[in-house]
Amino acid sequence: MTVIGLTGNIGSGKTTVSRLLQVEKGCVCLDADIIGRVVAEPGGEAYGQLREAFGPAYFLPDGRLDRPKMAELVFHNSGQLVRLNNIIHPAVLAVLKRRIAAIAASDPAQNIVVEAALLIEADYLDILDELWLVWADDAVRLKRVMRRDACSAEQALARMNNQMPQAEKAKYARRILHNDSGIEELQHELEEIWQDFANKT
User: Fold this and answer.
1) What is the pLDDT of residues 98-123, one digit of tens each?
2) Each residue of 3-33: pLDDT tens digit?
3) What is the pTM (predicted TM-score) of this model?
4) Do 23 and 44 belong to one domain?
5) Whether residue 148 sits in one domain with residue 117
6) How far apart are the first and last CA of the chain?
7) 181 and 168, same structural domain?
8) Range of the domain at 71
């Protein structure tokens, strides 16, 4: 079993690569961003700490986290973002460890992909055997984000600039997939990388 960390900045196409690894290569894919939303729900691993840290003003009448209000808070306040991340990331990491252990126990040969935009920033590297980075040129990512989110160039750039630069992430990556030209080229590059990975594991 190998645990592959899959990351990429906004608009890079990491979710597309994750889907290809699941459908075409039989990997089990764990989406840390989805787990991050689940742990913040009532009954989730981070819920109690969130309520204690931010108070009822950031929760809806039914008890769920008021995500737009929280996003507005942390987008303009780096200290509050750190506070939020210090609650969410350890909870996500605990869930990931449990799920990886369960998969390893039931099928020791199963390859696992952990997908997250913040794998490096959230300090999840210790649970990974290797890290793969999906890379796309900034101009390509800008167009994708504007189209996907129906936002202006200024809004898209603000989101892009709020992340660790791709060149910095590349220092941690064992393998880099380039996703500038479309799905066929991406599949071809993934096949080459997968063959090299399979030959060495």
Assistant:
1) 999 999 999 999 999 999 989 999 99
2) 999 999 999 999 999 999 999 999 999 999 9
3) 0.90
4) no
5) yes
6) 9
7) yes
8) 32-110
